[in-house]
Records
---
Amino acid sequence: MASKPAVVARGVVKRFGTVVALDGMDLEVQEGTVLGLLGPNGAGKTTMVRILATLLKADAGTAEVAGIDVAKHPNRVRAAIGLTGQYAAVDEYLTGRENVVMVGGLYHLKPAYVRDRADELLDRFGLTDAANRPVKTYSGGMRRRLDLAASLVAKPRILFLDEPTTGLDPRSRMGLWEVIEDLVAEGTTVLLTTQYLEEADQLAERVVVIDRGKVIAAGTSEELKTQVGGDRIEVVVEDPAKLAAAAAALAPISDGASVSDPVERKVSAPVTGGSTVLVDAVRALDEAQVGIADIVLRRPTLDDVFLSLTGHAAEEETQQPDKSNSRRRAR
Ligand SMILES: Nc1ncnc2c1ncn2[C@@H]1O[C@H](COP(=O)(O)OP(=O)(O)OP(=O)(O)O)[C@@H](O)[C@H]1O
Ligand SMILES: [Mg+2]
């Protein structure tokens, strides 16, 4: 892994009136890697990204992007970065393709290159059929995808993506992940904000969790999950008399003591190794002749991370934890 930081922030403070949006944020992104900035609504993700992208001035602290001080030389920083905002910023009256090509023009890229790259990106985001229609006829999700395509046309050295997959369907989400992986393979540094541990898991080498404008945890997503207790296998047995046998069968494949709940006929045991452990568990229970009513591998969600780190849930929109990870933000 490269060791030179592409982004460094130290003690960044930002207030909006009486609201302290950033309360001494520290951040470092190594060159050529993806950092996931994870946090609930209002944590300060967008504010941090806007400061790094020179769209907002910090009240205190320092930040450097590509080795350049964002407050002293905003124009030089802008030349090195690409930014996708949380809300799509595209021209309504141009077609999808014209929007992407126009952005390429702003970066002074060769027209032939821009045309090829535009086609490639429009295809990646499923917009080929709509490419020649004015954007005012696009749906919200289509605008979002177009905004992403436009921001990626120039292959910036450092890319800021603010909740890039919010509101995207699964296919476009995967398309974006592929584009990001390609860019990183070519050396781009990415700072990505998200509310989904799953997404940070997929893309980011390192994850920084923030809450109320402060870093509350940092590490790989594996480290964070382990910190909150890691994965657990939960088995519901058919016959409550077999609970002890189930616990004994799971013991060799689990990392620690299991917990049995006679009322729910459930045994829960800590494990590592992902879904292969599930197969091992089914086999072990089968050999012990324990009938299985239900078996799941429960992975920690962002909600679990928050609950464990802060003692409070990740606020409004997480009141009903959704294990499928498919929940979307309301706006
Ligand atoms: N222009 C502004 N004026 C006043 N308050 C603001 C402004 N921008 C942000 N805030 C406040 O600063 C805090 C951090 O907001 P920010 O948008 O950075 O959060 P976020 O982590 O991006 O949230 P979300 O997940 O909802 O996008 C919030 O309390 C927000 O209300
Ligand atoms: Mg935001």
---
Amino acid sequence: MSTTMRVEEMVEQEFSTLSFEWSWREVLRAAAIGELLLLVLTMVTLRDLLAAALAVILVVGLALFMLRDKVFGFFFQMIARMILWRIPEEKLGALILGFLFADIGFYTVTGAVSNLVSGASGAAILLPASLATFSVIGFVAAVMCVFKTRQSYAPNRAAVNFVVGVLLVASVVMGIGLLRGNTNAARVLPPSDIKLVTENMTYSQMALNAKPGIVRVELDNHDLFWHTFTIDALGVDLKVPMQATQQIAFEAPAGTYTFHCTIPGHEMLGMSGTLTVE
Ligand SMILES: [Cu+2]
């Protein structure tokens, strides 16, 4: 009895001496740097152009946001003075970071959840979940820095609790991804008539051929974004999250059909093609 009391007291003491607090500014900075490292890693390992583009935007936002930083501020200020004139650079930087985190966060949170539900494992969960973690933390910190400028300077417990909460949820999700990696390595799909890969915002084939009847299409998405295989004329709409492989089977009478990706902007960037059934 007395031993347990003493242990509890010791734990409490340890906690009170730590009692660290972070400001939302520190949280935003840390989330941006973490996301940047992940994007650079993705860029190098998967040769992902989208990751490269996002990394560039992130660096611009981070540079603006850190204009008043004691260490890097002077350097960033010189560059910013040349480009911008009389714009509140720090707020602009936080805004850019906020939009970027919202954008990446939307696709990665939905992607991680969808991959989790569909039984995916390994990178299909770890990659979107880790990006989502920094995105969610960074987005909230950016909102605080833009709208509660004064509060965002003061170290506070709310920031710590929020970050720890998000990290806890993320580690549970990533734990599932890691554990499943060992037990559920081979998820076997039935053989498909057409195999498509999406990488760097392009389909691996623009001209597809099939025999009339049931057509089975498999889409292996290597990108960080969602992609779809959509044929409006046949009511076909296969949505595939980042790093996932999915299949759809549909009835196709003889004819020529246009397929495309319905994610905003993707068709404009060339994500469309023709399926000839004969
Ligand atoms: Cu797409």
